[in-house]
Every structure is written in structure tokens, then in C-alpha cells.
Amino acid sequence: MAEGRTGADGRETAAQDLERELSKLFGRARSLSLTIAARVHPGLDSASYALLVHLSGIAPVRAADVVELTGLDKSTVSRQIARLEELALIERVADPSDGRARLVQLTETGAARLAEVRADRRRQLRATLTDWSTGDIEEFSRLLGRLNSDL
Questions:
Q1: Prior bond to 60 cis, omega within 30?
Q2: Is 105 helix (H, G, I), strand (E, B) or coil?
Q3: Residue 89: which of 43, 29, 32 has the closest Cα?
Q4: E strand or H helix at 129, and its extent?
Q5: Taking 90 as the threshold, does the pLDDT of residue 58 lie above it?
Q6: What is the mean pLDDT of residues 109-135?
Q7: Fewer beta carbons within 10 angstroms: which end of the chain, N or C?
Q8: What mean pLDDT comes out for the span 8-31?
């Protein structure tokens, strides 16, 4: 990619380059997600894996709150929670502030398997970025965070 593009043509070419690279990244991420999900549990799909990762950072939480926090459809969240529970990766527990309500949280097994896989993934990422400067990693992280916020 050329640096210093100017004008509408330069911006359009830059946007096309970005779209192509994001498409490659998303494809690789989907493939990696399937592989990682299977390492957590052979019956785990990538969408439920993504929810498990999300739950690890916010649990215990009500299922309705998961819908709100993720922006996913209620039926999708319900189906994924049921699947994660079926695989014994999450469990429903009583809400201490409202005995009628139930919270979802990772089981000990779910938390341990997820932690192991995520630690391995972080090691692999560090190995991939061995030749990147700390500044490049920080800048990429900042820009990726900005893109995620804007999306």
C-alpha cells in the first residue's frame, strides 16, 4: 500500500485495501475461533465460544443483561446459554439480590478450560508479534479499538 494518498481516489483505494485486509482477518479469526472453541470443548461452536468469553468478563449476570450487553437477539442468547449449560461450561445460580431470579456464570471446569486456551492463544499471539515493536502493537491496538468503537 502506498503512503500519503490524497484526494477521493486515494481514500477510495485505501478503503478498498482496508476492506480486503479486514476480510482476510475475519476469515482467519473465524477459523481460529472454531479451533479454539473445539479445544475448550469438542461440542462447542464458535458463536457459543464467543459468548463464553464474554461471560467470563461479566459473570455472574442475568441472561437478560447478556442480551443488553452483547446486542444479540434474546433467542440467540437463550439458545447459546442453554448449549453452554448442556456442555457444563456455565451454570445457573440463584441471584442473591432476588431469590426468584437466576444468574449465569462459568463453572469451574468452564473457567479452567477457557483460561488454559486463552493463555495459549496469548502465547501464540506474542510469538506472531515477535518482530513488531511495542509502539506498533500499541498503535495497532489503539486503532483497532477505535474501529470497534465506531462499528
A1: yes
A2: strand
A3: 43
A4: none
A5: no
A6: 95
A7: C
A8: 92
How far apart, in Å, do the first and last CA atoms of the chain sit? Answer: 24
Burial 98-108 (b: 16+ CB within 10 A, else e): eeeeebbbbee
Is the pTM higher than 0.70? The answer reads yes
- The residue with cell 471446569 is 109
DSSP letter, residue 96: T
Nearest to 78, CA basis, from 102, 56, 110:
102
φ, ψ for residue 53 (rounded to 5)? -60, -45
**Integer Cα distance of 59 and 110 in angstroms:** 12
Other beta carbons less than 10 A from residue 147's beta carbon: 11
Residue 46 CA to residue 64 CA, distance in Å, equals 21
| Grid cell 449449560 in the structure block, residue | 85
User: Phi-psi region for residue 137, left (φ > 0), alpha (ψ -120 to 50) or beta?
Assistant: alpha
Predicted local distance difference test score (pLDDT) of residue 96 = 87
